[in-house]
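BUG: 3D viewer hangs when loading the predicted structure for this chain

Environment: internal workstation, default settings.
Expected: structure renders.
Actual: progress bar stalls at 90%.

Input used:
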Amino acid sequence: MKNKKIIITLFSLIFITFISCEKNNIELDHAMTTTPTTKPLKAPVVGKEVVKANDFLNSTGICAHWYANFTNADHINMVKYLGIRNVRGGWSTVNEMIQLRQQAGVRGIVQTWNDLPFEQIITRTIATSKQLVASDALLAIEGMNEPCNWPVTYEGVTSSPTNSVPIAHSQRDLYTQVKADWQLANYPVFHSSLGAASQAQNLGMQFLQIPAGAGTIMAAGTKFADYANLHPYFWNQPLIDNAVWRLMTLGSDNINDAMYSEHCHTWNGFNGYTLAQLPTIPRVITESGFTTVAESGFPMVSEDYQGKAVLNTFLDAYKQGFSYTFWYQLKEDELHHGLYRPDNSPKLGATYLHNMTTILADNSSNFTPGSVNYTVQHNSGLNKPETVHDMLLQKSNSTYELVIWSELLSGINDISIDLGANYSSVTVYDPTVGTWPVRTEQTNVRWVELHTMSDHPMIIEIKGGIVSSLPDIIVTSLSYNAATGIFSSILKNQGNVATPAGGWIGVQYKVDGNYATWGGITGSLAAGATVTIGSDGGAYNIPAGTHTISVLADDNAVITETNENNNTLTQPIVVSSLPDVIVTTLSYNTSTGIFTCVVKNQSTSPTPAGVVIGVAYSVDGVNRTWGSVAGPLAAGASVTIGSDGGAYNIPSGTHTIMAYVDDVNRFTEANENNNSFSTSITR
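Structure tokens produced before the viewer hung:
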């Protein structure tokens, strides 16, 4: 195994010798890393279909380095804590990988490394792979790691920035010899990483198997790999919303054009698969990550951001069709992408990942998944924001785990999830908080509100079956206008079916437990819909003082509901015996210099008889004129007041004008702090 010093020297040599690798696309190699996958490889289920939780967990992997100061016992404990299923290693770590399989349950990739003539590397790789097969520890065999960064010698020729023939021929022959071996033939071969994108000639490495008519130098039918192999990193650019998601996309809008430049249109302009074909290409990610120290073009992120990016990386990659994903790396060494520090202490990324895999833990895919007819939307009623993603998992015990994650760099998304039916138990988890629920909502739950979705996943656990196919009416808000005596309430049907067509949806309003008035509508209320109901039975005057108001929905019990005991909403109210005047509008006539405002008494009591209602008009905080009317002003009434103190000419420019009612405090009000109204004006 190379030591760290030799690797850093190689890095320096590469940047000098192979500087022709595309500037903005070159990705630093992480020599001797270890990232895994699981046998047999399966294409992930994407869209709104149910993903088996065990299958998703089987897609997770980590790159691990075995240096002199990193013991295998450390690796075993770390991998078990993280809950990941795969590790990426090489020929020199075969014994360690077997121990990891035996003690941590993970399988490994045998990664080829171009430190010898490649004829010898192929022989060594096949022998190592057979050792892992004997211990049921092999997941896959991986081609060369970023050969545009490292010289490859094969058939007596060494690759260079102008000659990729040794890379293409050795990858072809690695694939051929693996498939010719009866012990290895059923194991997948991953393509070399960056080899296709950086090939100097149109050798055909942009394909897994060169199709007829491709016009490549190597012959049609040549096979290189079973899976495309990508290294999507953030490189030489600032972070943005949806940063991780856009690393995984397949088109040219990808942040570092990974799948596009590897297999659709390479750095040197060679065409491969069409954009329409890319989603059908089996693919894996054997390196991706973020560093907590600024280095080598990688943007520095906080431990918290890195930790959330770990979760988003695994979720984004699986959602976008990658069968396996490996985070770079397990423990910090020459770079700081690791989830553990050199002293073996976990960073936040290790803790967050442990929490997520613990919440989702399952060990069987031997079941037929069900479904949840859920929808995700913004609470304003708009469609789901593009920074919010979702994936429905199911465990072998029938529990659903609906993962909702957001990728905002700053700010929040206010999200509402309609589960499509009422479920008997719904629990919400936040992997950045712990493995315990942050919210438990049991009995007849259909709607889940996530008001502060920001930059990481939330997990909604759904247990039990659908409660029933009935409507369920609840009251979500209740108000009373003291000036008009009118009640108003908002009803919501949180059931999974509409109320009966043409039926009556009525409410009864009470004050201090006594009937006050009623309201209602005729018609059907759809599942998930809301409706506002007023006081069709007329106004009701609540006397001054503190009272309790309540509303009962479906007051005559004409609707059969899932839950007949959640139809009431009760709240306290204070009704004042004092007037309360406010300014509702303010205007200024630039031609006449006259101010005009409308004053309203929003209380249930009139202003005092014979007492003037005055208004002071100010410009930029200085009183300039006034207006008034004689009192009283009835409860709920409005009056227009002009400029009895004369006109005032506001000079050119932008100014703030304000009207202040009851300007000299002629009478006592219920609220003395709501008398002003201001606006901006430009002349």
